[in-house]
Amino acid sequence: MRPLTSHDGTSPSPVKRTRPAPRKPSPAPRRTGPSEDTRAAARARDGGLCVRCGKPARDLDHRRGRGAGGTHGDLSDTINGPAWLLTLCGMGNAGEGCHRDKDHDRETFEREGYAIRRNGLFVDAERVPVLTRHGWMLYANDGTRTPCPPPPDNDARNAA
């Protein structure tokens, strides 16, 4: 067998094998939701019950969807405040409950103040009342809620 030679007749240099670069460590997951203190304040305000029907609430729901990937910066600080969070029974699209109903009947839940549209306009959640099982309420970022008169045409979208 003939030894390998390059075009000019000299022996080729051996092929250098390189190791793949070490992987960079994955960054810590970004926290885009409300702080534990804010979550606790919202649960305490609502008594751990669904504000719509009174059943035990499993988690908090944002009145304005955070979108894929969550939120960050000033917007995160704003929509993760207590006025933007409500306790609802059920879990999103799964099973039963008011949380699932909100995802399936957005129009009604916007009218009742449970959902605030993400249409490019900023709406202050403290000014949008919610039709709870106790009547119309305004939720504040200090973790309180107060009764209020019904919005025009009983449509929370007309209050802001």
Q: What features would you highlight for this structure?
A:
160 residues; alpha+beta; two-stranded antiparallel ribbon; 4 helices; elongated
Written overview of the protein:
It is built from four helices and five strands. With 160 residues, it is an alpha+beta fold. A hairpin with a 5-residue loop joins strand 4 and strand 5. The longest helix has 11 residues, at 36-46. The radius of gyration is 27 Å and the shape is elongated. The chain starts with 35 loop residues before the first helix and ends in a 13-residue tail after the last strand. The mean pLDDT is 82.
Strand/helix succession: HEHEHHEEE
> How many domains make up the coordinates?
1
Query: Which segments are poorly predicted (pLDDT under 50) over 5 or more consecutive residues?
Result: none
Instruction: State the share of residues found in helices, binned by percent.
Output: 10-25%
Mean pLDDT level? 82
Structural class designation: alpha+beta
The largest pleated sheet is described as: 3 strands, antiparallel
Helix segment count?
Answer: 4
Overall 3D shape: elongated
Q: If strands are numbered along the chain, what order do they take across the biggest sheet? A: 3-4-5
C-alpha Rg, in Å? Answer: 27 Å
Distance between the termini: 87 Å
* Beta-strand content: 5-15%
Number of strands: 5
Short description:
The protein has 160 residues and is an alpha+beta fold. It has helices spanning 36-46, 73-79, 98-104, 106-111, and strands at residues 59-62, 85-88, 130-132, 135-139, 145-147.
